[in-house]
């Protein structure tokens, strides 16, 4: 496959995910639900399709979705795990170090501020990136499954550099880190995997973070 974008071998450019650095993947993040994920920290809107009608339910829950199409939002900050489960879910992190897990279905994962870990699961997922200290780490990006990336505002594919860091790809604009794709070869990145910001249910068009 022809690829004319800059790809460099730069193992010292970005620490691997198991290294302790605040701007990288949080070293203490695991698959358990942290205590900070209390009921007043998560908003969930579940949309279920019934026979001939759509039923919407609003409730609070510590970060777990259902088999329906859920919208999970960390609206208070702090370290939180949001897990969508089955269905086409929208997961929106807060200002802390969040772990967003889409599960089955075609999900949208938006880490927002803070260094976050995004895991789409099965399906064609959309990962919304940011940059600066709070860039996101994407655990399971797979273009063959239809996964896509969304860039921050005023940032285009032509502005990016893709560097090979071990088995991972660092996405950067100059020295600014935009994202880290685990297990992805930089030479496989093409412009067609980047899309415009999606619309998140009734939350209006998604606004990605402006450049810092």
Automatic annotation (TrEMBL):
Record bears the keyword Secreted: yes
InterPro entries tied to this protein: Hemolysin-typ_Ca-bd_CS (IPR018511), Hemolysn_Ca-bd (IPR001343), RTX_toxin/Mannuronan_C5-epim (IPR050557), Serralysin-like_metalloprot_C (IPR011049)
Coiled-coil regions, chain positions: none
Keywords, sorted A to Z: Secreted
Subcellular location: Secreted
One Gene Ontology CC term in the entry: extracellular region
Protein name per the record: Calcium-binding protein
